[in-house]
Write a structure and sequence with these properties.
By secondary structure, this protein is mainly alpha-helical. It has eleven helices and no strands. It has a single domain (2-270), classed as MetI-like fold. The mean pLDDT is 86. The chain crosses the membrane at residues 12-32, 70-95, 102-121, 141-160, 181-206, 239-260.
Length: 275
Amino acid sequence: MTRTRRATTGIIALALAGIIFVIPFVFIGLQAGKSRTEAAMLAFSLPKAWLFWDNFVAVVTARDYQLLLAFFNSSLITVLSVAALVVLSAMVGYVMQRRPSAVTGLAQIFLLVGLMMPPAVVPTIGLLQSIGLFKTMTGMILIQIAYNLSFSTMLYRAFIATIPRDLDEAARIDGAKPRQIFFRVILPLLKPVTVTNIVVQSIAIFNDFTGPLYYLPGRDNVTVQLTLYNFQSAYATQYNLLFMNILLVTIPPLIVFIFFNRQIVAGMTAGAVKG
């Protein structure tokens, strides 16, 4: 009876997951293969004639291949931001976990505030303008680091708590300096949580819409999410090209998530129980 109940629960869960996640993706794929007239009806039906390749070419070549520039900009922002986040948050999490003090306690409060408070857009724009980083890739990368540093640091700190302090002491007895202890002893052990952090932050930063919209205006600074504006207007929306654009923007993060979902779960739960 228990096995039957578990099997029934599993089937129901899979069906609900299919309805919530798979069906919307299928709907996007269907609209991306239709003509402009058919797609405007937003019907869940097969197209009379598949125009998938034609829509793909139209989206890629729109506005002098702006989508390719957007993929380059988004990839550049993502790679540099995530690389900085991994190094900085791992170092901060290590210090906060291994050296508790009044300073680290205050840092903990600031991290919690960073997780809870919404971004202050107008003051941030003013700050970027005052230091000459508004509308620049450097400014956008610094914004992404600032927005995501709290979560990454909490993730690393929880994982470092599971690493025995005896390793630090043994390395210190052998004459290793604090920097060597972190980079040669601790950092190699952070691989599970590092993979999780890289995947989670890469998807979040790559898919960020409001950040580039506020802090990175300009035709040459377009990112993948902002290209969705190309096929929308107040008078006529090209739904077939819009959905094709959505499909192209969604595929890279989806592939990353499919291949690394186990690592994400392992890294997120590794620090749940202190060893």
